[in-house]
Design goal:
It is found in: Cytoplasm. By secondary structure, this protein is of the alpha+beta class. It has 5 helices and 8 strands; from the N terminus they run E-H-E-H-E-E-E-E-E-E-H-H-H.
Length: 261
Amino acid sequence: MYGFNLHLFVSDKSGGMTAPEALAKNHIVYNVKFLGVTEVDQPKGTDVIRIAVRKLKFQRHIKKSEGHKTPKVELQVSIYGVKLLDPKTRDVQHNCQLHRISFCADDKTDKRIFTFICTEPETKKHICYVFDSEKCAEEITVSIGRAFDLAYRKFLESGGKDVEMRKQIGSLQKRILELETENSKLKERLQDLEDHMADCQVPHLCSGGDSVSLNALSFLEMSSVALTPASSPDSSISAGLLTPPPSKPTQPRLPQHYGGC
């Protein structure tokens, strides 16, 4: 399974198999069979794709045994997104905006299979689309990747004035803000966990200004790194975040008094 994160795509300068001029001026059309869609729990990853493909292939096999044919669709790739149209009625069945497509892959063991993951704007669910493309899966993958590259170049050339590109960039910036807010809440939870761990340590392990156990700190550090977006100004870890507060001083025990003494 071959795939790439489309937000990090770099175009193939060797010419490839697609026509960049067609993408820049209009769109590229592919006639494919649509195996269907299924929700996945991650926005990217070859393992995620592989499970989705296996699931939809099995479902399609069941439908085929019941006499149902795999529907054909017209797949249009442009710098604005990927559209699926009914080839007869020309009705748009799915319209996936380019900035919502997070991962794209073709199967090297089955050159007919092509797939991508798109995030729904309302539900934020990650939906995997799977197609049987009759030996042009790799070409479609490259076309979508090049569409990302051309869209970004167009945005730069317009000086940020392209309305559609500004909408897409705005959506990405909004998503970054959401991640930063979520990251801030997670840091608060980590701080609470750190305080709780410090209180629960055996007294002789955290006397004075000694740190909490190294293993515990390593766990917190890994969690903080994994949950901090790269674009966030808080992406570097503060030493203060990983340093536990000093242990509470032990209160002297007062002598007990009994009645009559």
